[in-house]
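Sequence, please.
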């Protein structure tokens, strides 16, 4: 790999002697990594290819595990204040029958915290507000030119020249060019067998309880946001690469308009241009480590997973604080990055596999198997809702390895 032709050096001043970290990618994992590294003593720059940070118009669920990670950064309570789920909800069959009913309070008691669903734009705004004013650079194409080693810094190439860094974080998503540069022979993420639609609409006239519905070959979820709008998502087992010739709203009507209320009303309220469709891929062949040289991978770049456990963003946030914990700027970086991989690979690999198993279960197409599945779920719920909740507890009860950096600081008070 090429060595630097030119290094952009910042102006001298307070903090200029700190080691430099470059984060490639301005998504949730990249922004959280930048905050965590900044608070632990790194001088951080985030390079984002897009001209502006305009996150995909959809929701994201933050479970207690990622909220505890955000506590490390002084942001957990600000996220919890955005929680919208306060009553009952649960899981339903395609005809509307409740398979599992649970309350927000029961979930909070079982998981040790609330479940927060919010718009991705709100989370991105919150993260950007916690960055140093000059840390984010948008409209910058960046690629890893040299991962570096113990005796040399890493190099990131941009259109304006090369930048040397003591640490590079690859947070460039499921199609990560950084991952490909580090591990060129590793298989790319594979299609899960289903595609996903996401949409946000005004609340319908008739109130409803939040739910996820498991039907034949697909899933529908409908959940409220704090601002009164509704976030909905759907998945279906279809060949990869497809798009409806007459629009995705029409496709949703074909597939879901005969499902239970309020699903038809949610579809009817959607503007066609606001419906997002994406094939779902995951790292079916896991990486054995998430670092090489002076470079670490976080989020989908490291361990893309199916959304069936709603943990993709949560695990990226976990990655960020664990990376900052191990990548102590005053300690041996090679040992720190090895510690990061050792901490994250087993957990995230297990969650990728658990999400894949859940995807197979909730995308059954055989009617008799669906009937058996539904009865088993309902029977487990009758034994007690906590039995269902406990299947998620091993994920949600995670705690970060470090105490909050930001406790008592201005960041925590914002």
């Amino acid at each position: 790999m090429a060595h630097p032709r030119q290094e952009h050096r910042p102006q001298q001043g307070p903090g200029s002697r700190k080691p430099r970290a470059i984060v490639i990618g301005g998504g949730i994992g990249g922004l959280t990594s930048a905050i965590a590294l900044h608070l632990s003593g790194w001088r951080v720059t985030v390079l984002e290819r897009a001209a502006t940070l305009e996150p995909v118009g959809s929701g994201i669920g933050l479970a207690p595990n990622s909220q505890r990670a955000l506590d490390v950064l002084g942001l957990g309570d600000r996220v919890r204040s955005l929680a919208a789920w306060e009553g009952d909800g649960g899981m339903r069959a395609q005809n509307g029958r409740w398979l599992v009913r649970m309350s927000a309070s029961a979930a909070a008691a079982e998981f040790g915290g609330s479940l927060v669903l919010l718009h991705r734009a709100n989370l991105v705004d919150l993260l950007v507000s916690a960055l140093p004013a000059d840390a984010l650079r948008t409209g910058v194409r960046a690629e890893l030119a040299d991962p570096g080693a113990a005796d040399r810094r890493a190099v990131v190439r941009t259109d304006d020249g090369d930048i040397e860094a003591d640490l590079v974080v690859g947070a460039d998503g499921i199609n990560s060019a950084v991952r490909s540069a580090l591990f060129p022979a590793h298989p790319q993420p594979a299609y899960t067998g289903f595609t996903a639609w996401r949409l946000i609409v005004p609340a319908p006239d008739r109130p409803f309880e939040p739910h996820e519905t498991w039907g034949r070959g697909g899933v529908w979820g409908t959940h409220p946001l704090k601002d009164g709008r509704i976030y909905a998502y759907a998945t279906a087992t279809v060949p990869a690469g497809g798009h409806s010739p007459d629009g995705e709203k029409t496709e949703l009507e074909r597939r879901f308009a005969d499902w239970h209320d309020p699903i038809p009303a949610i579809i009817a309220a959607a503007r066609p241009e606001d419906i997002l469709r994406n094939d779902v891929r995951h790292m079916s062949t896991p990486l054995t480590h998430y670092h090489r040289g002076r470079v670490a991978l976080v989020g989908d770049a490291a361990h893309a997973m199916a959304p069936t456990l709603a943990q993709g963003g949560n695990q990226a946030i976990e990655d960020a604080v664990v990376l900052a914990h191990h990548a102590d700027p005053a300690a041996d970086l090679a040992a720190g990055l090895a510690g990061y991989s050792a901490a994250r690979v087993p957990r995230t690999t297990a969650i990728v596999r658990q999400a894949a198993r859940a995807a197979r279960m909730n995308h059954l197409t055989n009617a008799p198997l669906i009937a058996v599945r539904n009865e088993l779920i309902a029977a487990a719920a009758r034994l007690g809702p906590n039995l269902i909740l406990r299947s998620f507890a091993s994920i949600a009860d995670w705690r970060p390895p470090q105490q909050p950096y930001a406790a008592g600081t201005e960041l925590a008070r914002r």
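Residues 1-15, 407-414 have pLDDT under 50 and may be disordered.
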